[in-house]
Amino acid sequence: MNILQPDNIDFAAYLHATEPQQKIREAGVWLEDIKQDAIHPPQENLICMPWIKTQASFHYRPGEVTVYAGSNGGGKSLITGQIAMGLIKQKQRVCIASFEMKPKRSIYRMIRQFSGENIDRPRYQDKAKYITDLVMRFKDFSASHLWFYDQQGTTNANQVIAMARYCAVKLQITHIFIDSLMKCVPSEDDYNAQKYFVDELTALARDHNIHIHLVHHIRKLTSEEVTPNKNDLKGTGSIADQVDNVLLVWRNKKKEHASHAGNSVDDATPDAMLMCEKQRNGENEDWYSLWFHKDSHQFIDQFDSRPMVFDDKGDF
């Protein structure tokens, strides 16, 4: 695990993309690749989310941008942290740029998810040994595969674009998480700035063959119990149009409210939904039911599923 300090890196050198003249080539440049691909179709390395139910219908493709949108406190950061660990397990190189949470807090939450239990109240008497062993396991798991950009508060679009290009070019990072769009373009009404930022991200992902994960917010709906759709994203409608994938994170507030009121609830009713509202290069736009495992802060496949194990040698 590594930390990128903005004061120690000249990100300005990575603000601009390759000059246009370096991208203009004769068509023949691609003919040999096309011929070889037709004769020997390349084996596609499908990069998946960590939930079993999602793996046949949704994939993270290089050169794409995925938006995760939901309400405040809706679980977007928890879900994307869990997704990031699933990517690390698949040997992807990940950078998390959260402008809403310090790296120390983000790492703590990921370690809790990684452990599969509440690390503040471990099952073992020797808490010091347990925590030490757990941190070492997480360090081994994330070594050379996890970076954090140490910058909180409002930033600006160009700085984030330069940071992302630096990660792609210098660190060979394949997945960059940006949390959130509204920290990069502070004004909800500045539609041109939003469009510029998302357009630059899509170009950057395409040019460097990486995947960018962008956290965003939805408008306030008539009720917390209403399920959103991609038209409910804050800001300009071009955000959903420009990106490749739109995933909405929705918490089942009706179930939560009933539980808090002391009413009986059906455990088999999902605690959350991860709703694919757009997948440009996929055939499916499915909704995935998830359940929240309170001790680990993981979202799990079924209400009676065990938490995921991230550092074993097998598959999910």
Q: State the helix count.
A: 9
Largest beta-sheet characterization: 10 strands, mixed
Instruction: Tell me, rounded to a whole number, the average pLDDT.
Output: 91
Note the beta-strand portion: 15-25%
Mass-distribution shape: globular
Percent helix, as a range, is: 25-40%
Number of strands: 10
What does this structure look like?
With 316 residues, the chain is an alpha/beta fold. It has a single domain, classed as Rossmann fold. Helix content is 33%, strand content 18%. It contains nine helices and ten strands. Strands 1-4-3-5-6-2-7-8-9-10 form a ten-stranded mixed β-sheet, with helices on both faces. The model has no long low-confidence stretch (mean pLDDT 91).
What tags apply to this protein structure?
316 residues; alpha/beta; Rossmann fold; ten-stranded mixed beta sheet; 9 helices; 10 strands; 33% helix; 18% strand; globular
Please outline the helices and strands.
Blueprint: E1 2-4, H1 28-39, E2 64-70, H2 76-89, E3 94-98, H3 103-115, H4 127-142, E4 146-149, H5 157-170, E5 175-179, H6 181-184, H7 191-208, E6 211-217, H8 238-242, E7 245-251, H9 253-260, E8 272-279, E9 287-293, E10 298-300
Helix pairs in contact: 2-3, 5-7
